[in-house]
Amino acid sequence: MPQAVTPREILIVGAGLGGLAASLALQTDGHKVTVIDSAPEFAEAGAGIRVPPNSSRLLLRWGVDLENMKKSVSKRYHFLRWADGSTITKVPFDNIVETHGAPYYLVHRADLHAGLLQAAENAGVRVYKKQRVTEYDFDAPSATTSDGKVWKADLIIAADGVKSVARPLLTGQPDVPRDTGDVAYRILIPGDDLLADPQLSGLITDPCTTSWCGPDVHIVGYPIRNGEMYNIVVCAKSEGETTDEVWVVKGDNRELCERFEKWEPRVQKLCKLTRDFMKWRLCDLPILTRWVHPSGKVCLLGDSCHPMLPYLAQGAAQAVEDAATLRQCLAAEPDLTTALKKYEKIRLPRSSTVQAKTREHQYILHVDDGEEQKVRDTKMALNADENPIFWGHEERRKWLFSHDAEVLSKSGANWTEGTTVGVKAH
User: What's the number of domains the chain is made of?
Assistant: First the structure.
């Protein structure tokens, strides 16, 4: 730390991955942190999550027990054509630690959440369930929950997700999440089912992230929990399954098999092995211009200010980066308002770039067969700025994966005032 930290009472609204990461980072700096969440129980969605180096370095540093967590390590990112399974390109991750300074893990989301919760509580964070915030006083600051309890603090961090109660109040603008037109199927298949089929076994024994790209759809698969499960996320054009009121619906094996009956044999086999699954509406928000309330006592963090679509696997990672930078800003600046404005100034350009590029990949990965697709496939194999995949180019991959959000210097792979290093328009 550059100087002694001014200890503060901090209230975090939201016990998701971003909120818990922030609570852990700030509690270990000497702040007194309380986390409240509306959930009756903490149970993250049953699906996998990728933990890239820009977040794994921070979680390991803060004492989250990733080493003993059941996981896989991604060796590469393998893009394939939908109809015949032919390779478009492979992005190697073999030397990920040597290149970027931290591993690239593939884990179960519930395991990561449980690990963060345990580390936070071990550090002294107080976490309360069944506390739904209905009202804020940003000048006090305080948050009032549905039972009438008023929670006061020196600083409130709203880490309450894409449907944030705090965000429209803080920005002064009503907002409605943008429907992307896509839904995500979240699927888990027992690893033994794949190992029993010679055509599928390599997906477990040679762990990597596999992405089949097709018209209006792409499928991402990777092993988790030491290969005990194979995680699949299907991002597909919505067929009207969800509504503004209902964001999550149940899917079934028959509809999945019918939708992918013309895809390559491995995809068809994975569909047949799939049991019931959930389909999630995919929404994001326009890029915000403000994360900090004018009172200088309340800020946004994670999906509440930059909800990420799953196409770059950076949603949780960017929330962890937020937590790291906020920690350093509070340590460096004794004045709370100054610290929060510095946090916003540093984080907003970087996360907004990732958010915008994530949205672009919805189109890039879903191009229909034809000349545009052929040009895309050719460019995807290039280690050059022309590569449409954001981290398909080594310079951009370094900017993303080698970033250390606890370093506030204006150099290297970290933040540079007014710019995003190594990122160019496409």
Answer: 1
